[in-house]
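Hi R.,

Quick one: here's the Pyrroline-5-carboxylate reductase sequence you asked about.
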Amino acid sequence: MTVPAPTPAASPLPPILLVGCGKMGGAMLEGWLERGVRQAVVVEPQPASVAPFSDRVTVCAGVESIPAGFAPAVVVLATKPQQAEAALPACAAFARAGALFVSIMAGKTVAGMTALLGGEARVVRAMPNTPAAVRQGFTAAFAGPGVTEEQRALADTLLAAIGEVAWLEEEALIDPVTAVSGGGPAYVFLLAEVLEKAAIEQGLPPELARRMARRTVSGSGALLAASPLDAAQLRVNVTSPKGTTERALNVLMAPEAWPKLMSEAIAAATARSRELAG
Ligand SMILES: NC(=O)C1=CN([C@@H]2O[C@H](COP(=O)(O)OP(=O)(O)OC[C@H]3O[C@@H](n4cnc5c(N)ncnc54)[C@H](O)[C@@H]3O)[C@@H](O)[C@H]2O)C=CC1
Ligand SMILES: O=C(O)[C@@H]1CCC=N1
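And here's the predicted structure, written out as tokens:
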């Protein structure tokens, strides 16, 4: 087991404008607030989405009601891809003022977003995931044309505040990233759901089944995070020869089972990410 190195003093977060505060935008904002962001303005037309933040940040129903004089260093675009055409043109003034754009929208290309932002925007395309809310996210990012080293460092500071960051040299790699880490938490939560259901089927009381499934998934995640061992070795460490886990894994790891299903699932999600680019 490794002891984590002490975290170096973190740089202050820049003033942020968040456009779209739904499930992913809200998760990132939660992480930034926990990390101590000082200036954040949120544009969100749905009051219910932004209610958990309304006493901590400035909330606007539209770009036109952003307080005069607020000059974001970074504009984070977190609407659904299908909402981009309505949301982005209103942000063009921030591009002209030199703000960096960080988009988390699945499928939306840098070129497409730059066009919607009036042609002058500097855009980083990023793919985070919802564990950002507890600063345990994983984000892969691609810096579009014209993004300076300073702006890339700014985006890195913002994304590193909510978890681990990896920079991509090719924009097209965002599609498989979207499938694997962007959507990945959903597959892990599905595991907790089906484990709970299977526990109930074997006669365990529902509340106990729920607690066990949640803790088994979250505890295994914590062990994976803390251990230097590969996931495969951690799996082997649970599996006694001729024991009970081996019987279960014989089912899960059969040729047509999990490994094949996961490959098909990731291929389907990657294809959908490419489709969204239009
Ligand atoms: N949910 C997730 O786990 C992840 C989502 N993403 C991306 O994040 C984006 C948002 O996804 P979710 O948060 O799941 O969707 P969501 O529907 O929960 O959030 C989108 C938000 O944008 C708001 N919105 C709509 N039009 C707007 C406008 N003109 N101006 C400002 N806000 C507007 C909506 O009211 C809504 O609250 C998507 O593009 C998705 O591809 C990326 C990684 C993971
Ligand atoms: O499902 C989606 O399209 C988004 C992108 C990754 C996670 N949620």
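The first strand starts at residue 16 and ends at 19.

Cheers,
M.
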